[in-house]
Amino acid sequence: MIPSRKDLPMLAALVPATFVIVAPFLWLIISSLKTEAEIGVGDPFALPDALMWQNYVDAWSVGGFADLIGNSLINVAGVVLLMLLTCVPAGYALSKIRFPGREWIFYAFIFGLTIPVQAIIIPLYQVLTGLGLINSLTGIVLAQVSNGIPFGIFLMRSFFLGVPNELTEAARIDGANHFQILTQVFLPLSMPAMQALVIISALSTWNDFFLPLVVLISPDVQTLPLGLVRFASTYTTSYRLVFSGTVITFLPVIILFILTQRRFTEGLTQGALKG
């Protein structure tokens, strides 16, 4: 598709902006394929004479990235599953079921969006300590779910509000209860919103550093961001290992977003378009 003349100024502004965003990642990837002597010498974007794929093998084995990725995958799977199990029914109830105090409950969740997790980290830590969940993957999953539920409910409620009430009324006339309406009518329609919720929850959980830093102590239960910091502080002067470990950390996130960006955009906009 050839851009029109009116789009040229926008494209001219996007090109340098894109370079500013992409350049650090490109420099990091190229540097991770160099030897120690080649890093920081000459053109930072010039490819080395020989690509050092061995850097990734060394970083993987030395840094224990297999265990870190395994912990992160368990963490992400637990958070995504609980977010779906809680936010989807709650979004349906707050949008399609009339009961006393419904609006106030929704406002309470909206108020939760305005509170940074740093403001409630002490009571959250005390609750997890009382439950015996400090330094466990179960504890960090519950902590991240509690932090993400307000946004998840807001997203699902906004989508369900765009679904015509006539569908609910028709299902009630046919004798369906609210559980049947949710599972048989609304879930098939809400796949774009659910996919957006899954992607947002997965990306934010994978990249989260603050909550795992507070909850997880032992290296054997730490997630990938914590393991990367520990790895970088141990091998401070070995730039090839640090750069390779950093690429191993962020590459899955970039691949996931590239593969799902269309569904992500559809999930965020479809509800608004329906309304």
Automatic annotation (TrEMBL):
The keyword RNA-binding does not apply. Residues 69-260 form the ABC transmembrane type-1 domain. It is found in: Cell membrane. Gene3D superfamilies: MetI-like. The chain crosses the membrane at residues 12-30, 73-92, 104-125, 137-160, 181-203, 241-259. SUPFAM superfamilies: MetI-like (SSF161098). InterPro entries: MetI-like, MetI-like_sf. The keyword Cell membrane applies. PANTHER family: ABC TRANSPORTER PERMEASE PROTEIN MG189-RELATED, ABC TRANSPORTER PERMEASE PROTEIN MG189-RELATED-RELATED. This is ABC transporter permease. It comes from Devosia nitrariae.
